[in-house]
Write a structure and sequence with these properties.
By secondary structure, the protein is an alpha+beta fold. The chain has one domain. It contains eight helices and five strands; from the N terminus they run ααββαααβββααα. The chain has a three-stranded antiparallel sheet with strand order 1-2-3. It has a two-stranded antiparallel ribbon with strand order 4-5. A hairpin with a 2-residue loop joins strand 4 and strand 5. It is flat, with a radius of gyration of 17 Å. It starts with a helix and ends with a helix. The C terminus is likely disordered.
């Protein structure tokens, strides 16, 4: 039985931190992502470890924007983006997914990074209901 709260806020732990959700872009480019939050404890852990050396600068309001961006890029590349298809930096040369390559791609395409952040933070992308529908089909 599904309650109203389940309908509004119920998410799938498997989609959030297990098999993930595929985000498809034109041209056959696909990114497999986990949620930034929810059941994805790895993201919080990775982010905190990368942020820890800079915490004092942040508290003082002097953390450089490029350092904050680098922390987020690396955390996403290690704990949110978990795979891809169709990604090339040079025409006709598929790029292997690694966290290092992910940082390169997301750095080169900041609007892509912003969109993936939006998707990874959108609860509706990781809803239980969508998983149950997918399982039935």
């Amino acid at each position: 039985m599904t309650t109203e709260l389940d309908k509004l806020f119920g998410t799938s732990k498997d989609l959030e931190a297990g098999r993930g959700v595929e985000i498809e872009y034109p041209g056959g480019v696909k990114f497999l992502i986990h949620r930034a939050g929810g059941s994805n404890k790895k993201f919080q852990s990775v982010f905190e470890a990368k942020f820890k050396p800079h915490r004092r600068q942040h508290e003082m309001g002097v953390l450089a924007e490029n350092i904050a961006e680098k922390i987020m890029l690396e955390a996403y590349s290690e704990a949110i983006v978990v795979g891809w298809e169709g990604v090339e930096l040079e025409k006709g040369k598929p790029l292997e997914f690694t966290p290092e390559n992910c940082v390169k791609v997301l750095s080169k395409y900041p609007d892509l990074f912003l969109d993936l952040q939006k998707q990874a933070n959108d609860i509706s992308v990781f809803k239980q209901e969508e998983e149950e529908t997918d399982t039935k089909n």
